[in-house]
Every structure is written in structure tokens, then in C-alpha cells.
Amino acid sequence: MPNATMLKFGYPASTVAETALWSVQVRPQQPTLGALVLVCKEPVTAFGQLSPAAFAELQTVVARVERVLARFTAYQKINYLMLMMVDPDVHFHVIPRYEGVRDYAGIPFADAGWPGPPALAQAVTLDSGAIAGITADLKALWVDVP
Known about the structure:
The protein has helices spanning 4-8, 52-73, 128-144; strands at 15-18, 22-26, 29-30, 36-40, 77-81, 91-97, 101-104, 107-110, 124-125. It is an alpha+beta fold. The longest helix is centred in the middle third of the chain and has 22 residues, at 52-73.
């Protein structure tokens, strides 16, 4: 069963990949192109409550996310934000960072915060078509990039 955080971020339509304990989803508000949420499926609300299995699987998922996003956005840095102020389930916002602008389907995605903290308030809000397109492209890379 998906948890409330997975559903809030558009599960299952926004899902790039799932493992036994994690869901990788496209973030509907994109502060940079390729922004994701990485949501733990365990019923925990604090990072320290994750099982050893979830911690172990997190390493594998993060490594794959980084390889996929490197191909998708050619990011220069990557930020992982664990805010959990509104959505209680353990999750990270994954923000690829880059100087300049990336384009997707004619939509420009500037990293407005570069080189400082990400400018979350200046995100591009994706419509359902753009979410579907980015999700499909990232899914294809997930399969293609080991």
C-alpha cells in the first residue's frame, strides 16, 4: 500500500522506480529539471526509525538515482533535502543542481539558487503531460542505466 507521502507526490503516475522499501517519484514542482522525491515505504516518521534493510537499500537506490539523473540533466551537484515538515513519512527531495538552464519539451528549467541553496519557491509546476513525459524518460533511463 502506498503511504500518504507517495500519494501526495502523484503515486503511481509519477513513479520512476520502486524497490521493496523505496519509491522514486518525479516531484511535481521542479526547482530544477529532474527533481525527485525518494519516499520510504516503511511506516516510519523519523529517519532513525528506518530498518537496517531500508538503510542498506537506500545506498543502492541513491547510487542509481545519481547515475540516471547524470544522464538526464548533466547535473553538477546534487542536493538531498529531508524536510518532513508537512509530509510525515520519511522522504528526501532530490534536487539536481547546475549552472544555467536546462530545457525539457520547450520548458526552461533554471537553477535559480545556483550556487547557493536550492530556490524551492521558484519551482516550475509541471502539468500532467510534463509529469508523464519526465516520468517516462526517467523510467527508460532507470532500465538502461545499471
